[in-house]
Every structure is written in C-alpha cells, then in structure tokens.
C-alpha cells in the first residue's frame, strides 16, 4: 500500500456514517482503556499488600522488642545478696544463680541449644562482645558444680558474677551501673 492509499482509507473511516461509528468506537475504546488501567493499578496495589502481609522478608524491619528487664531484677538481687554473704557456699551459689540467669536470658532471646554451652556456641559475637568472658564465667560455674572440695574466694565469685553481669548488660537484661 502506498501512503496515498492509507490516507484515503483513514479519511473514509472518518466520513459519513462510518465516521460516526468509528468516533464512538474510539470513545468506547478510550473509556475501556482507562477502566482497565485503573483496575490493573488497583489489583497491583492489593497484590503488594497481600505479599507484605504473607511474606516476612518484605515487611519493613520493626524495632526489636526490648528484653523484659523486670524478669531479671529479683533473681539478680538474689545473686547480689549471696555475694554479700560471708559464707563461701553462698558465693558458689551466687555464681551458679548468675549462670542460670544468663542461660534464661539466652533462652528468652531465642538462642538455639539444649544447654548454656550449646547456646554460647551459637551466639552471634557481634551481639555479645563479651562472649569469651561469659565462657570463662561459665567454666568457673562448671568447676564449682563438679569439683565440690575446691576452695573458692569471694573475689573469684565477684569476678565470675561480674562477667555474667557484663553479658546481661550487653543483651539488654540488666541496666548499666
């Protein structure tokens, strides 16, 4: 087809009775196009909302819940009371209680593992910079629990409890002094 033939065909479509029908068809096609475009946008928005509700990786990160400090206050006061005692058996008990409290904090933080030792192996060192210190304190606790006849000083107990306290502060379970 030549350009003249195309122009003649298009002018035929816009003349007379055929022109009126074509004009109406253009209007109807425009309205339908606008309707389908709006429907497409609405469906896309709904689909995005559905994906956000059902896909956790698409939801914006929320602030992590702060640990329930009040759960640790009373047990930690018991640790401090045991340390203040004049009895070496109370000092040992203070270390064992501190170990248990730290284990409970890791459980509450959803750290995987059956024992405190297993949980300490899976803890992210960036979330717990004092991880090695907590390991040292846990080893003291194990020594106290398994070697009953060994002498133990108040200073050793204070040191081990202090290491657990540092870890609990880093996890957000104890307030800074």
Architecture blueprint of SSEs:
Blueprint: H1 3-13, H2 16-54, H3 70-84, H4 88-108, H5 116-122, H6 131-146, H7 154-171
Features:
single chain, 177 residues, mainly alpha, 2 domains, rod-shaped
Q: State Rg.
A: 36 Å
Q: What's the total number of strands?
A: 0
User: How would you sum up the major sheet?
Assistant: none
Helical amount: over 70%
The gross shape turns out to be rod-shaped
**How far apart, in Å, are the first and last alpha carbons?**
90 Å
Query: Which stretches are low in confidence, meaning pLDDT under 50 for 5 or more residues running?
Result: none
Order of helices and strands: HHHHHHH
Counting DSSP H or I runs of 4 or more residues, the number of helices is 7
Q: Number of folding domains?
A: 2
User: What's the mean pLDDT score?
Assistant: 84
Overview of the structural elements:
By secondary structure, the protein is mainly alpha-helical. The protein folds into 2 domains: 3-58; 70-171, no CATH class. The chain has 7 helices and no strands. It has helices at residues 3-13, 16-54, 70-84, 88-108, 116-122, 131-146, 154-171. Helix 3 packs antiparallel against helix 4.
Structure, briefly:
The chain is an all-alpha fold. The protein has helices at residues 3-13, 16-54, 70-84, 88-108, 116-122, 131-146, 154-171.
